[in-house]
Amino acid sequence: MGAEGAEKSTIIFTYGTLKRGFSNHVLLQDMISNGDASFLGVYQTVDKLPLVCGPYRVPFLLNFPGSGERVWGELYAVSARGLIRMDELEGITKAHYERLPIKVRPEAQPDEVVAEAYYAHRNYAEAMWKRNGEKGYSVYSEKEAKGYVKRKERPQHLTFLEQIGIFISSSSDQKDKPDSCYSKKKVHAAPLPIDVVNH
User: Fold this and answer.
1) Pick the catalytic residue: 69, 74, 88, 90?
2) pLDDT tens string 6-23
3) Is 90 an annotated catalytic residue?
4) 172 burial class (0-12, 13-18, 19+ CB within 10 angstroms)?
5) Residues with Cβ < 8 Å from 17, sequence gap 6 or more?
6) Distance of alpha carbon 133 from alpha carbon 128, whole angstroms
7) Number of Cβ within a 10 Å radius of residue 193
8) Is the Cα dihedral 31, 33, 36, 41 positive or negative?
9) What is the pTM of this model?
């Protein structure tokens, strides 16, 4: 990867919009063309983990081993420079996601690989799990992504944490209501759960 050669890469498991064929994969394509990432293959989590959708069909992996399903995704080796770009996209410093270890294995292979993944931040993960009825997916596919709204098309007067707070505080039967985070109508921020505000 790149001219650095000896630079140690970080192995990243992607499960959502960074995968091939999804909207944020352009970042990885750019990183691959610049020598800052390389595709390692399709992998599945060793542990069952909840993969859920939040506001605007944004995918979130929750760090609750034993719940949910074994999740399918893609593995990439990423340079330090590439990791900075991925951390920025995932809002690490804003408490959107947190990058933590994860055990994965290649398709139909027993060998485990320790990688890292972007999990929903612990400040709202439990509320996100409950909001999804404690049900998750084994893969973020076109079906689960249907209705995904790109960042630039979301209400710009709300932060992503405010959008998450509105989603969490809405009931699952409010898909078509303006305050549910599914609607493109302008809404005012609802009070956030205290643990989301105080990150």
Assistant:
1) 90
2) 578 999 999 999 999 999
3) yes
4) exposed
5) 23, 24, 25, 58, 59, 140, 145, 148
6) 9
7) 15
8) positive
9) 0.83
